[in-house]
Amino acid sequence: MDLKHLEPMSDYVWRLPPTGPMRVPGILFADVELIRDMDDKVREQLAGVAALPGIQTAAYAMPDAHWGYGFPIGGVAAFDPEEGVISGGGVGFDISCGVRTLTTGLTVDDIRPVANALAAALARTVPAGVGSRGHIVLDHAEMDAMLRGGARWAVEQGYGRADDLARTEEHGCMAGADPGAVSDRAKRRQEAEMGTLGSGNHYLEVQAVAEIFDPEAASAYGLKAGDVVVSIHCGSRGLGHQIGTEFLKEMVEQAPAHGLALPDRELASAPIRSELGQRYLGAMRAGINCALANRQIITELVRGAFARVVPQADLALLYDVSHNTCKEETHTVDGEEKRLFVHRKGATRAYGPGHGAIPEVFRTVGQPVLIGGTMGTASYILAGTGHGMEVAFGSACHGAGRRMSRTQARKRWRGRELVDGLAGRGIIIHAPSMRGVAEEAPDAYKDVTQVVDASDHAGLARKVARLRPLACVKG
Length: 475
Known about the structure:
tRNA-splicing ligase RtcB; 25% strand; seven-stranded mixed β-sheet; 19 strands; eight-stranded mixed β-sheet; alpha+beta
């Protein structure tokens, strides 16, 4: 991205001044190198978001931002409920894609002798890949119950335990979900996909706590160096994608009737208070519950795999947080508290210390912010900050962020070579497709450490722990 368009506010904060139809400025959180590495399309898309009706304060881009559908991935925007819009492009197609991390009670020394057997057991137990189907098949009534109940429904069906819900965003169930707003086609796509990872950048990874940066927060999160944790990254599968596809089309078609002059048809939106806006909210919230239920089911499948290989393991949920959502939240704007609809697309909620929406055990240190890296580098656990609440509606990055398209990655790398190379470094990879491995090559992504450092320096969230991969089941 050309720096001439931006005004530096600090070494890690940049301002895109309002021009043309922009109602508010754009704010980018990144160091100079990350900014220069961003496609100019990020700037163009951020300007488009800043032109939407009812937007509050600014349109934000996180350090891992790259161009997406309408909104940049790594984009955050909050809208007034009366004047504002809700945008399908501001949520994305994989509704409520997120990360769930489990502690295991094990150390690296416990895992090392059984790493291959454990990785194989996880790969057999949790279906992954394009069109992957699980052993759970939901009929119409069960589907609607799942879409209303989320992870709570999953626990009631025997997948997990009640104390998991206290460590899950929204306590495992998004209020306001409307299964009736979800099409039969979306439900059919999901009827056999519960408990599956899907494809793309989704993964199930066994990780070692390699480094602790904040001992107080790490203690609150139950982490210490040498511990083994498990992270699950996936979302709402075919149901979420179908919801996005259908509502984006309808939003484009109805935009003129709502008086919306969209700067880009990919910014398809509807007034929040419109019939279409309310219907999308109901469907999207059902999609959130689908993702929460999916990760809850996978959690129990993972517990079963561990029990067969390392029966002394005790897998407890650290936290579950999404990064493709729109939620109604209270934030301070111009010194006054307001209810806002906060879009986070490829951005993680990162509430600071004292916030009532996070588990009481974390309130002195802030919400766990789970950052997925790549299968060959690292992932991170951060903690939300009070400053982040003030400057970005309590939001932070969500991962490394792509620097190369999947097509470019396939042309440059071969999956088998990557798997063999990572094995030489002690990282076990299981994947149904070598093509998929090539698309997810670690070097196709930005440097996750640089992204996390920028988030830390900008005050969005502070570093707590670095996790290095031991074994990864790729989608």
